[in-house]
């Protein structure tokens, strides 16, 4: 299936969801507040324009990316703010329903409704939601545009040689270089990563949202992270929307080594030296694009007595991974939910959302660390899920 078809399907679903959200916002912010005619027409027009701007911007980013970038930040900010508004208004509606139910149970139901009271409550709900949402969006924007935090995690890895105790992996995930994250932000992330002095750097997908022609300069700072055991990369789903083959070739030219259903040994390169295996597979969404994750290929012929770390963009497949001897899987993709309470929806799709977990499967066990990511997708807002660069410190189990 081509990128064009995937984009068309995504846009169709996106437009339908947007329509529903913006109708609800209109109903609560315009219809229920009894605004005078000119205000009502103006706000209605602005909501229609805001809803249309989102899919139109996504299309424009594919057709004329440089021109569309000027619009991307405010349009994507509205996407995040509209979600926060939706949640705030829904919480208000739920509170009203609970209050009405309690009143009915108390024997006060059936009374004629007071139009003035209804108008007051509608305006109070709308005004409160706007104030709360604005404050949350401002705080979330400050978090998203600031420096990613350093999240240090100690992981006891089975079969890791004592000589490699303290071996450090810096994990960068979900940088999303593109319309709203450019060279300046990527350089800042690279500098913070370099300051950790890791033994190796791993990039677990969703590095880019755009073509090599548009973004090669933006990601160039990642070519010199200075890790003695190299920088390693696996694809995320967004690479396949951006021209994966072109990006893999470009990353290799930068000196970033791609693990395309492959495995390498890290540690002492000498005969009989202390080492562990680092494997990586293509993203789970890569099948329609001619790739596909293949753990069998990545692990073919490996020494089962050697410690094993797996890079996989999405936090999936842990059952098979631990059965195959994976002691630690490093993933991203979830953004930790990015904007609370979206993390609850993410948790419905993925059992592991952010942080370090242990997975037990048919007598075997392993661990998975899910990064919240160093960047953001879409809205330049992170609320309750700050961006991070993970410093993974390996120790023998």
Note down, in words, how this protein is organized.
By secondary structure, the protein is an alpha/beta fold. It folds into 2 domains: 3-144, no CATH class; 148-396, 4-Layer Sandwich (Purple Acid Phosphatase, chain A, domain 2), CATH 3.60.21. The protein is 45% helix and 17% strand. It has 10 helices and 12 strands. The strands form 2 sheets. The protein has a 6-stranded mixed beta sheet. Helix 3 (65-105) crosses helix 4 (115-145) and helix 5 (183-195) runs parallel beside helix 6. The longest helix has 41 residues, at 65-105. It is elongated. The two termini are 44 Å apart. The mean pLDDT is 92.
Which properties best describe this structure?
397 residues, alpha/beta, Purple Acid Phosphatase, chain A, domain 2, 2 domains, 6-stranded mixed beta sheet
């Amino acid at each position: 299936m081509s990128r064009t078809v995937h984009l068309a399907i995504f846009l169709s679903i996106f437009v339908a969801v947007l329509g529903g959200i913006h109708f609800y916002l209109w109903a609560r912010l315009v219809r229920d507040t009894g605004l005078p005619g000119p205000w009502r027409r103006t706000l209605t027009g602005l909501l229609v324009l805001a809803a249309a701007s989102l899919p139109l911007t996504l299309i424009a980013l594919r057709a004329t990316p440089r021109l569309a970038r000027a619009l991307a930040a405010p349009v994507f900010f509205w996407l995040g703010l509209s979600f926060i508004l939706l949640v705030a208004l829904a919480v208000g509606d739920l509170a009203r329903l609970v209050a009405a139910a309690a009143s009915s149970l108390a024997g006060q139901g059936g009374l004629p409704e007071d139009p003035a009271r209804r108008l007051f409550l509608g305006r109070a709900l709308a005004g409160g939601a706007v104030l709360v949402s604005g404050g949350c969006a401002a705080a979330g924007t400050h978090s998203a545009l600031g420096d990613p935090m350093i999240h240090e995690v100690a992981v006891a890895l089975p079969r890791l040689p004592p000589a490699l105790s303290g071996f450090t992996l810096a994990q960068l995930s979900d940088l999303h270089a593109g319309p709203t994250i450019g060279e300046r932000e990527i350089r800042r992330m690279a500098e913070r990563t370099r300051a950790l002095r890791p033994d190796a750097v791993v990039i677990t997908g969703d590095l880019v949202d755009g073509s090599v022609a548009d973004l090669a300069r933006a990601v160039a700072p990642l070519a010199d992270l200075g890790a003695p055991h190299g920088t390693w990369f696996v694809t995320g789903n967004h690479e396949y929307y951006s021209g994966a083959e072109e990006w893999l070739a470009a990353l290799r030219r930068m000196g970033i080594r791609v693990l395309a259903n492959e495995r390498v040994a890290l540690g002492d390169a000498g005969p009989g030296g202390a080492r562990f295996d680092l494997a990586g597979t293509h993203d789970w969404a890569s099948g329609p694009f001619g790739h596909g994750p293949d753990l069998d290929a990545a692990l073919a012929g490996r020494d089962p007595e050697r410690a094993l770390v797996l890079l996989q963009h999405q936090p999936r497949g842990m059952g098979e991974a631990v059965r195959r001897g994976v002691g630690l899987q490093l993933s991203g993709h979830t953004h930790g939910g990015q904007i609370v309470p979206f993390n609850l929806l993410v948790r419905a799709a993925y059992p592991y959302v952010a942080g370090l977990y242990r997975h037990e499967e048919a007598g075997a066990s392993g661990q998975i660390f899910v990064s919240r990511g160093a960047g953001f997708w879409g809205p330049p807002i992170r609320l309750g899920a700050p961006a991070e660069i993970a410093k993974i410190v390996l120790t023998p189990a």
